[in-house]
């Protein structure tokens, strides 16, 4: 039987597009999508799907054994904005799912694991510009604490048990196919939908808040590229910095204005401003470039074009 891939949290913002891409590459029968809930119609029709609560070790093991799973992408988590509302729930979900996957890898039930970290591992004491791979990390959100702890455990499981776990510190990801999952960078997605619907957006971050961002196609490309890289080239087993684009709400609004001249924006920062203020403005991803030839494609202008065209086409 062919070894298969399992995506956990496949109905989310990243999982939906990752499933689509991996199914196109590996064949739909070889990529099993799973989540605690059903996803988009397209995803549900596109190949095998299991309802699975990844905090349940036995249920996860059953799916892995049943489908002869070799490789797991663990996308289930509670994101930064929502996690601040439910700190203990977020900690429990983010850590239990990671330990379940790491322990299945340690016991030889799977041979490779992808687990995403985030720029949220950094904190207010981290150098903000061009944040290096190794630097001060004092995250101040429960989400960031869970990601930083997760990184330490990934490295530990690799060193101590030889687990082949790979990870990327995603910046804010911008896409239109699925609604964002409650993160602090969600404004950069909502703004496009509101601009096209009512030519107006009220931003929950202030106009000068620069954050590292990336168009989803680049993030999916990086994820699959890292998983395909020969294990000898992967020098970092905590999580790789990944750069992309850095811009403020004001700069994004200006780029949208060029395409939608009547578009207007107001700024009404909420609790997410404090989260954004604790994160870097831009990221140095030299290690990813050197170790596995990473290079992003989308800049601010091409990303804005892709978002506007994508949302318009999806509405037709
Ligand atoms: N989207 C971003 O901008 C971004 C940035 C940095 C890191 N990340 C990380 O990438 C991963 C995926 O993010 P996303 O944006 O797709 O999140 P999302 O919230 O859109 O999707 C997460 C999915 O996990 C599912 N899920 C929740 N609890 C589950 C459980 N117990 N068992 C199985 N599935 C469960 C949810 O139903 C949801 O479909 C997360 O680890 C997140 O922290 C995302």
TrEMBL record:
Q: Which SUPFAM superfamilies match?
A: NAD(P)-binding Rossmann-fold domains
Q: Example GO biological process term?
A: L-threonine catabolic process
Pfam families the record matches: Epimerase
Highest taxon above the source species: Bacteria
Give the matching InterPro entries.
Epimerase_deHydtase, NAD(P)-bd_dom_sf, NAD(P)_epim/dehydratase
What molecular function terms (GO) are annotated for this protein?
Answer: L-threonine 3-dehydrogenase activity
NAD-dependent epimerase/dehydratase domain sequence ranges: 6-243
Q: Which family does the record assign?
A: Belongs to the NAD(P)-dependent epimerase/dehydratase family.
List, alphabetically, the PANTHER family matched: L-THREONINE 3-DEHYDROGENASE (PTHR42687), L-THREONINE 3-DEHYDROGENASE, MITOCHONDRIAL (PTHR42687:SF1)
Q: What is this protein called?
A: NAD-dependent epimerase/dehydratase family protein
